[in-house]
């Protein structure tokens, strides 16, 4: 094979730039890899690994309690084989492998990986373009939300049919566990995944993320984790709630391995995504975009990534120890052999509470980001909003044990944790003030995204106030472990988190898809789910007040009425969400074509063409003013002066 | 002409109206504005509409006979006060939400509004007022919570070592054991009498030593306001003085496996005489 000595050129927005000669042919195996080969690789390696383990494991292998260990080993091998095979098959390791063998990725390869001239095929490949990754995240998140939402419907059906039991207790427990963890994972990525990837680089005026290949890696690790979670439902299920407290989890069937490996892989994916987003935001903001000119959504994504980065390792570590207990017979969490159940609870909630803010802060930031656009006025007290986000991040690591008030772990620690938890209402209050200050005297342009923001603020107030009861130890002594808690965190994670995500999708839809989200169908979907949401969870508050414990499939007849109402509400949410989904699908396929800036926004992401070209901007923008520079000179001054002069005339000038 | 120079007839001009009036005056001026008044009136209206929640919440909690102890009474008092304190802020936020849709200008249509809104970038007085109010309220809640916590701790197990010797005094000690999926109550002062229904004497302090044989359970005496986890390999302590006769509920408040939902039993609070006779009648169940 002769070496090609011609000078390669690369076209950057029509300008041909000579490139240094690079090794390696502009072909290679990576051009043949896609999602399909990933599936084939995953299934093949999973089969081989499982089969091999089954052959190699002696059938007499058992653990200390004489339970056969063969299924555990085989399932573990299958899951590991799936992840590695899938990542190999989709081409995640092509870059590093080629670097190792000395034929690094060429410029043409990098452009290929960016999805240049690939059309729709790029959505099925290991594509590095942040916009493609954003869309991929959106699709995966919606699928996961749909799966977990279906489980929610089944759970409510069971609870609403008080006269009979539809499901066995173990399957019911497995449903609530899987619903919980699937929703949590979906909500963690719901805003940061699609919008953090698609919008943030454009919002800060960058061509892509700082590490495009890591971006693709974080996405496809997430994609690889989801089937593991779902597979656990067929392996006995996660019967221990989403928190899988030990030692109950060690009693669980092998399906628990699916949970543990999902978390381990997901934590890697989160860490990569967090580092990538944070580096991008820190280093790649456009010229002139100082911190006071950086939009609030970027702050929100940065804060969320930061909290995810320090919180997830605790969770991952807890699951690694749990996996070790299960597979290797160690006893980190087994009290009979000197382990501690409180150790698990601490590690879990060290993730568990920051994670709530990981979900809520981005959707709160979305709300603040799009209010100025629809109210045509600047964000009220931008610095205060930043202070609020900083305050939440600062306190997020010091509140975890409020989930453990009733565990008896450290009764004396309840005092400081109550203090820190109630302190968090102050920075959260900052964000509320910024929201209502921005609404103040604004002309409301009542489009769908703004209406979703109203829903977010309303739900957040209810979730916040009920959170005050739970932060208080005496009141928590009654509410802990009851349906009241379930209703509270649904108001926060769904009412504020998911509705914030819906606001964000509706707002950025024209930029992401080039079409306007159907206003009428979308609004019907939004308000139907909003009303269903209030019905479901307010009656769930009532059930909690009456004393219904959470995670039960059967209960005293005194709770019947609130559960019936709650179930009816849940179906209304389901219908509303389907309508909203229909709006997304029909608008994506055949909605009105959007102009490049349909909302008249002044943010950078709206200043480039739609559909957004590869590398976003023909020329990188330079930022010369603060964000949200909307608004006319405030008549406040003139009006006040007039009144003052009037007053002075009447009472005399003293 | 010279007089003019000596006595210039320049009338005293009023102070330039561009000078900002002092803060307090600005607040009173602000209150004269029609929209400010309407928002405040709306706040008051919404606040009064929300006010019944204070009692409705307690009514929900009291459905099965609570409060049956001083602790539960404290809990309900806390809930009542917290609801009351939250209402003004909630009402104000809801009022602004409502007024921004109905009161200030609203436009629809596909195109962005032609005219922008006033560019209010910040408002020092508003920000300070909000921060001060929310901090004071949060501090109030914290202080209230700390005092109440100290009080219910004293009411439950705080006094066990301070005031009396356990086992010799009028207090009753009960060892609570959770296991999948039953509660067992052992009365060590009565020769290890055991029962699967919790019998309590009226108006006497009871101390619980709570543990578990297998996984984590949570011992919840609903109407008494008592909750503590039952952990394997550890004993947690709490206590209560039941002050109301009747039949109440024990439920498990921590998912503990398949039949978690059915891990519940009854509490029977009896007069001292009736409690004594129950102990005597169940004497056959003595384990040692």
Protein model, in words:
The complex is a heterodimer of chains A (654) and B (288). Chain A is mainly α and 654 residues long. Chain A has a single domain, classed as Cytochrome C Oxidase, Chain A (Up-down Bundle), CATH 1.20.210.10. Helix content of chain A is 64%, strand content 2%. Chain A has 22 helices and 3 strands. Chain A has helices at 35-56, 70-90, 94-100, 107-113, 130-160, 169-192, 194-198, 200-203, 212-232, 248-251, 255-283, 296-328, 341-375, 382-396, 414-423, 425-439, 448-471, 473-479, 483-513, 519-546, 560-590, 635-651, and strands spanning 9-12, 15-18, 444-445. Chain A has a two-stranded antiparallel sheet with strand order 1-2. In chain B, strand 7 and strand 8 (226-230) form a beta hairpin. The radius of gyration of chain B is 32 Å and the shape is elongated. The relative contact order of chain B is 0.12. The mean pLDDT of chain B is 85. Chain B contains 7 helices and 11 strands. Classes of the chains: A mainly alpha (654), B alpha+beta (288). Chains A and B meet through helix 6, helix 13, helix 14, helix 15 and helix 16 of A and helix 2, helix 4, helix 5, strand 1 and helix 6 of B. Strand 3 of chain A pairs parallel with strand 1 (106-107) of chain B, so a sheet runs across the interface.
- The largest beta-sheet of chain B arranges its strands as 4-3-2-6-9
- Cα gyration radius of chain A (Å): 26 Å
Q: Pairing-aware structural class of the strands and helices of chain B?
A: alpha+beta
Protein structure class of chain A: mainly alpha
> What fraction of the residues of chain B are assigned to beta strands by DSSP?
15-25%
Largest sheet of chain B: 5 strands, mixed
CATH homologous superfamily assignment of chain A? Cytochrome c oxidase-like, subunit I domain
Largest interface: A-B, 100 and 99 residues
Please give the domain count of chain A: 1
Query: What is the H/E string of chain A?
Result: EEHHHHHHHHHHHHHHHHEHHHHHH
Helix content of chain A: 55-70%
Mean pLDDT of chain A: 90
Number of strands of chain B: 11
Major sheet summary line of chain A: 2 strands, antiparallel
Q: Oligomer, anyone?
A: heterodimer
Output the radius of gyration of chain B: 32 Å
Discrete helix count of chain A: 22
Work out the helix count of chain B.
Answer: 7
